[in-house]
Amino acid sequence: EKERLDGDFTYARSISLYPWSVDTGIRSGHPICDMYAISHLENETIACVADGCGWGMGPKEAARITSQMFIHYMKRHMDEIHTLKDAGVLALRAFKICHESILVGLAEEEIYAGKRETTVIASIVLELVEPVNDHHYAVVSVSVGDCAGYIYSLKTGKLVEFTAG
Question: Could you give the percent of the chain with pLDDT greater than 70?
Fold first, then answer.
């Protein structure tokens, strides 16, 4: 299990819900294959959560590569974002780079056997040049798989899933 508090901006915690093994004293499914990475820039935040598919080091490595590579790619290309569509296009390009990075060093039969797989959701929080309906920020998210994304509203005090549907 991992827990991380990053100043006043970010709190993340990764836990396993798998049962404890009576024989080994550790949880089934060890190691946890969930990984996250967050980067706070001057007026933007980039976040990525990857959930390695299955158990073991292959899925964990896929999630680690994806979460770190997404942040790295987006930080290098943030100056190319002028519209929300630009942000979405760059995020999809980042996913392509993540996918290619996961496959590095795998033999063809390992690729087809699914040795390194992960689901992922990544978001970029951008400050708008001009507020829209009194909103000063926008969130652009991309997802592969069943990861869910939520937005918390300070105004309403509600947590709303934006990936439903």
Answer: 94
Q: Which tokens sit at 15?
A: 């836990």
- 10-33 tens-digit pLDDT: 777 777 777 888 888 887 777 778
Return the beta strands (E) in 41-114 as ranges. 44-52
Give the pLDDT score at 34.
Answer: 87
- DSSP string covering 42-87, please? SSEEEEEEEEESSSSHHHHHHHHHHHHHHHHHHHHHGGG-SSHHHH
For residue 22, count other CB atoms closer than 10 A to its CB. 6
The residue whose two tokens read 């820039």 is 41
DSSP H helical ranges for the chain: 57-77, 84-103, 108-112
